[in-house]
Structures are given as structure tokens and as C-alpha cells.
What does this fold into?
Amino acid sequence: MAERGMEGVAINEITDIADVGFGTFYNYFESKEAIYDALIEEVVEGFGSALDRIAKHVDDPAEVLAASVRYTVEHAYEEPLWGSFLVQSGFSGRALERGLGPRMLRDLKRGMEAGRFQVHDLPVTLVAVRGAVLSAIDAQVELARGGPGDLGFATSLGVDPETLPSRGAAMLLRLLGLEADDADEVASRPLPKIDLGPASVAVLSG
It folds into this structure.
């Protein structure tokens, strides 16, 4: 599911990899959608809940958004399988209901209310921000998995996985109306220390 999405995986593939009988699957999950929802809860919501704590330590809504983006993009490089799943779920039809979608919408609204973000079309801005973040995650996954001589899109552009999180966050802040110097400064602040919990990739790799 991390590589092909929910629709691209058959139940018999899941049972073969898990080394369980086809009928045994239904003792735990009523459908493929049910196991996908369980993965979303464990892999995406768990990480998102950890990021929610940033707002308890940071007052500036722009910094909250930037720190969330940086943590997420950094984590995708550390755990590319998790990053792939995040991209797949982020572009799914449920993206605005769980995971990144509702958190991005919440943070955008907070920034607007505080006067930090200049947003004139919230729905389209949310689409643009979500697309930019998921693209950055996808680039990190490519960079993490690329071998010698592998010239993928991100590699061909000379993207540095260490600076991509802060550069991506600064670009989003400029998109949201911050002046370039302000955006760069906010996106380069030391990250607040939060506990991201156990390595979520273990859930995907079994």
C-alpha cells in the first residue's frame, strides 16, 4: 500500500506477505479498506498527533507550520517506506478527512486569524500547500532510496536532503504571504523538541 496505494494491493497479496490464510484475514479485518484505515491511524495519525504538540511550545503560527513541515519531510528521508505511504494516503480521496489534510487546514486558519498568512482563496491554497508538502516528501523518499548513478527528478535538480525540509518550509511561508527574509528566518529556527514516538515504519514492514 505504501508503493501502490490501497487499490493497487489485493487481499491475497497481504495474506501471502503476512504468511496467514486468506480466511484468517477476515478474523481481524472486514475488508481491505479496514486494514488501510488501521494503517492510517497507526502510521499517519500517530505521527500527526505528535506534531500537534508543537503548538504547545510555539506561539507563532508560521513557525508551527514550518516546524511541522520540516519534521515531516525529515522523517520521510529517515523512513522512506513511511514517506511513500504518506504520499499515497495524502493523494487519496480521504486526504482532507485524516492525516495531513485537516492539520494543514487548521494551521492555515490559525495563521490567517493571527494575521501571519495572507490567504485569499483558502481551498485552493490548501490544495497548493498539500501538493507542495507531498512533493517534498516524495523527493526525500527518492533521495533516500537512490543508489549510485540513480538520477531521479530530485537528484537531477541537485536537491540536498538535509536542507530540503527548511527550504521547502520557507517556500511555503512565502507562498502564504511572508516576506522572503522573514520566511527564511522562521524556517531556520531550531526545531522544538517533541517526542515523535516509536518508529512508525515498523508497522508497515511488519
